[in-house]
Write a structure and sequence with these properties.
The chain is α+β, with helices and mostly antiparallel strands and 113 residues long. Helix content is 18%, strand content 41%. It has helices spanning 15-24, 71-80, and strands spanning 4-12, 28-33, 36-40, 48-52, 63-67, 84-85, 89-90, 95-100, 106-111.
Length: 113
């Protein structure tokens, strides 16, 4: 069902300011989407994604994103297992949806070409 962890995502309050900050630390932007940017970190195989949104110390905004080659089948399988999932979304670059564990921790699945 899952092939790998695709990225780790952090929510930031200002994407442009945060992007500059990460780049000044040596992170390299490899992709920019609407409201988010993906960075490589040294030789790591797992990139870091920053996503603009509401930042709150009350919520854990860090979540893993898993990659799948068949997002529709993965979506159906999780629903069949009774896993809470959001609607499947397409932002023009990625197809993705969130799902939640028993403690309501957010996880995400994506597909991109």
């Amino acid at each position: 069902m899952f092939e790998r962890i695709d990225t780790v995502c952090l929510t930031v309050s200002n994407i442009e300011q945060s992007s500059v900050w990460y780049q000044e630390l040596g992170f390299k932007v490899v992709f920019k989407g609407e409201g988010y940017q993906v960075f490589t970190i040294g030789d790591s195989g797992v990139p870091l994604t920053i996503e603009e949104g509401r930042v709150s110390s009350q919520e854990n905004s860090t979540y893993p994103i898993f990659f799948t080659n068949d997002i529709n089948n993965t979506y159906v399988k999780l629903k069949e297992k009774g896993v809470e999932v959001t609607d499947l979304k397409d932002d023009g670059d990625n197809k993705f949806f969130d799902f939640y564990d028993l403690d309501k921790n957010r996880l995400q699945v994506c597909f991109w070409e």
